[in-house]
Amino acid sequence: MSTASVTLPAPAKLNRMLHIVGRREDGYHELQTIFQMIDLCDQLSFTPRRDGVITLTHQINGVAQDENLVVRAARLLQQVSGTTMGASITINKQLPMGGGLGGGSSNAATTLAGLNHLWKLDLNNTALTELGLTLGADVPVFIHGHSAWAEGVGEKLTSITLDTPWFVVIHPRVSVSTPAIFQDSELTRDSLPITMARALQGGAPEWRNDCEAIVKKRYPPIAEALDWLAQHAPSQLTGTGACLFAAFESQQAAQAVAKLASQHWRSWVARGLNTSPLQDALGC
Ligand SMILES: C[C@@](CO)(OP(=O)(O)O)[C@H](O)COP(=O)(O)OP(=O)(O)OC[C@H]1O[C@@H](n2ccc(N)nc2=O)[C@H](O)[C@@H]1O
Ligand SMILES: Nc1ncnc2c1ncn2[C@@H]1O[C@H](COP(=O)(O)OP(=O)(O)O)[C@@H](O)[C@H]1O
What we know:
Blueprint: E1 6-23, E2 29-49, E3 54-56, H1 69-81, E4 86-92, H2 103-118, H3 125-133, H4 139-144, E5 148-151, E6 156-159, E7 166-171, H5 178-183, H6 196-200, H7 212-218, H8 220-230, E8 236-237, E9 244-248, H9 251-261, E10 266-271, H10 277-282
Parallel strand pairs: 3-4
Antiparallel strand pairs: 1-2, 2-4, 2-5, 5-6, 7-9, 7-10, 8-9
Helix pairs in contact: 1-2, 2-3, 7-8
Bound molecules: 4-diphosphocytidyl-2-C-methyl-D-erythritol 2-phosphate (SUD) and adenosine-5'-diphosphate (ADP).
Adenosine-5'-diphosphate binds at residues 60, 63, 67-70, 91, 97-105, 107, 178, 239.
């Protein structure tokens, strides 16, 4: 790989199941979740600069440059490594923001891994994961780069191998606030912890999302889309939404349902993966 400039993918994730099993003293919730990446990606291009400046070539609507997780990740990496290098970064955004697909966290993970490579810092994955966790609870799994069973706030990761169906992913054109859902007094936050083995058996009742009931109640358009998709295959929310998904055995079947869905909502067909395309691109 050339060190001049590099373009790397930042894939989306789905939570195939998500249980909330407790709440920590700092307010964060203890989860048990299964993460799977899909081949729906943002693309990030990095061009190194010798003047130490971190800059985005284009702004993302509604996110100030200094708040962008890509810029925050790059600055954090500069800080801990002491490098004098900078970078111009282009974000080609495909993933909806605040959609439960983890796009912002994935952008941060790709920035940490990409600049670690480009700036020749040689930080290992454990160090990158620790940095990533300070930026968001979902960043570690994107550094990890493999389907995973996750506990804690999503940072205790065990690699697993999942089926790789074709997913129909729908964005019902509403935005869900993750903090608001986690603060909701009616949220189910006392599910009994289960073992990974039990979770991996799949299917109901374990492959559910504990955020779903409250999200459906607070956001009727999401309830409507979930009910619509359930006519074709079992439908589920990813993360705290707003996106929802269903699995299909064939690409054709998924495409047929996505075509119908696109009459009402933004929708995609994406393949489930076990290895992140970021790891593939970095050759690790
Ligand atoms: C729920 C999940 C499941 O994958 O997905 P998303 O819907 O966001 O994609 C994640 O754990 C979200 O991760 P992420 O989006 O990185 O969350 P953060 O920025 O760290 O946290 C946003 C806010 O949500 C609440 N929060 C988040 C994670 C968690 N385990 N417990 C919480 O209570 C906290 O109030 C926190 O301030
Ligand atoms: N590069 C980025 N891409 C997406 N969102 C970003 C980015 N930088 C900061 N954000 C902020 O992070 C929030 C969460 O984004 P995202 O990870 O896409 O959603 P979710 O956590 O629901 O999966 C966004 O609403 C946005 O305000």
